[in-house]
Amino acid sequence: MVFQEITDVNQRNKCLDMKGEKLDYESCEALEEIFRRMQFKLINLEWVKLDEDGASALFDIMEYYDSAVHLSISFTKHIGTRGWIAAAQLIRKSSSLQEFEACGIPLMENSACFVARGLRFNSHLRVLRLDNASMSGRPLMLLGKQEWGTVKQILTTDK
């Protein structure tokens, strides 16, 4: 993680790039100090090694501090049920989050149900990107069956 480029804590900073980092529960809790003081246009958590407890804590903190306009958790495995519940709550409650990416993460039925619930009540998300999420059948139906308010694109390509 590089913080040298962050110069103004009163405006949204361009990017917090944590790509490939290992984040356990304690390190996610420590990130609260950053999110309490700064907000970002993009938070990149691609390929982060994150467990269910860490994911849940991190998404809860990001939701509380309204930390990102664009959040990418692509290719981050082991988010678990509690992590997806917290991600859905972040989608639902964040007033700034406009784009959420979770590409390359298999989205099972129960996780798709949580995300669909988060989408139902959100008022700011514009793009949900779930490329290569191995979705078919019921999970895909859950995400595609309703009008999602402000969501303009739900991208679900599989290769």
In short:
37% of the residues lie in helices and 18% in strands. The chain has 159 residues and is α/β, with parallel strands linked by helices. The longest helix is centred in the middle third of the chain and has 14 residues, at 52-65.
Blueprint (SSEs and pairs):
Layout lengths: L12 E5 L4 E2 L1 H6 L1 H6 L2 E5 L4 E2 L1 H14 L2 E5 L7 H14 L5 E3 L7 H12 L6 E3 L8 H7 L8 E3 L4
Parallel strand pairs: 1-3, 2-4, 3-5, 5-6, 6-7, 7-8
Helix pairs in contact: 3-4, 4-5, 5-6
From the structure above, extract its key features.
Leucine-rich repeat, LRR (right-handed beta-alpha superhelix); globular; 18% strand; 6 helices; 6-stranded parallel sheet; alpha/beta
CATH topology: Leucine-rich repeat, LRR (right-handed beta-alpha superhelix)
* Shape annotation: globular
The averaged pLDDT comes out at 84
Counting H and I runs of at least 4 residues, what is the number of helices? 6
Q: State the distance separating the first and last CA atoms.
A: 31 Å
Domain count, please report it. Answer: 1
The Rg value, from CA coordinates, equals 15 Å
Class based on secondary structure composition and strand pairing: alpha/beta
The helicity comes to 25-40%
Number of strands: 8
Keywords: Leucine-rich repeat, Repeat
